[in-house]
Amino acid sequence: MDALIILMIILFWFTIWMAIRHYYVFSREKRELLEHISDVTYTDVFEKKTKKKNRRGLLIQKLTKYAEDFSDLGQRVNFFSENHDVENWLRKSGNSYNLTVERFQGLKIFLLIVGFFVGVLSLIIGLPFSQYSIIFLPILGYFLPIIIVRNQAKKRQQLIRKDLPDFLDTISTSLQAGINLDQALREVIRFFDGPLREEFSRFNYEIELGVQRETAYRNLLSRNDNTEFQSLIKSLIQGQNLGVPIATTFKIQAEDMRKLREEQVKELAAKASPKVTLVTTFIVAPVSILMIAGLMILNMIYGENSIFNMLQ
């Protein structure tokens, strides 16, 4: 009987292992097939709808189902989160969690209530610092969505700034080869990932749907507050109105952005020098002096020419 039980356990874990292995092989072959289709048909199969969502994103989407009940209260209790500010943050962050302003406002109230109940529960159980958690956990729950969305917006703009010069150089080369702007954007964005790809993919979709080019440019401006990106889009609008060659606009913008990046690096290096000096003065130098003084004192006490030997 014991041998049969052991055999069944082994078969059970073997079956689990085989299922996991086959699922992994299926996922890998599916991704390879999608990449092949993307290369052959020039379609963008890795848009946000088909991207793998991390656990935090799935958790937030589940929480938003409960947050809708608190949306009215959240729009009234709008400390540090006015509706127009929230709409601006969601737009510039890419809204990867598919939040509306109402859901966002309800989410922070829902997390505040959850934080309060968790604090009360920890106080009943008697966990360490539970008397503080009943105050700080609701505050953390209220501000957590605000912090996450604002950090996402900031990170997204930094990624755009990072990829923009290379993107402009590639577009400029394609335009000089005789390809029109829409076709160049459609081809080049396939080799870029992140928010830059998302923005210009959406721009292409708007153009294909019949949106006026200047309106599509204005939509790009409204979704991004990156200085370099806004300068590029404004130059494109001005070049379109004045008839300036687009390839020249992209080339000049790429050169200007690289110069600006060099200046920013020099500025950061100049700011880092006083910080290094401060650390050296108040941390490294005192520790070095204490080590040397300690060695001297130990040598005076325990060395061959110590004070005790001289007194004897």
UniProtKB/TrEMBL annotation:
Keyword line: Cell membrane, Membrane, Transmembrane, Transmembrane helix
N-terminal signal peptide: none
Bilayer-spanning residue ranges: 6-24, 109-129, 135-153, 276-302
Pfam families: T2SSF
Primary localization: membrane
UniProt membrane topology term: Multi-pass membrane protein
InterPro entries: T2SS_GspF_dom, T2SS_GspF_sf
Source organism superkingdom: Bacteria
Domain annotation Type II secretion system protein GspF: ranges: 167-292
One annotated Gene Ontology cellular component of this protein: plasma membrane
Location of this chain's protein in the cell: Cell membrane
Keyword NAD set for record: no
PANTHER family: INTEGRAL MEMBRANE PROTEIN-RELATED (PTHR35007), PILUS ASSEMBLE PROTEIN (PTHR35007:SF2)
Full protein name: Pilus assembly protein TadB
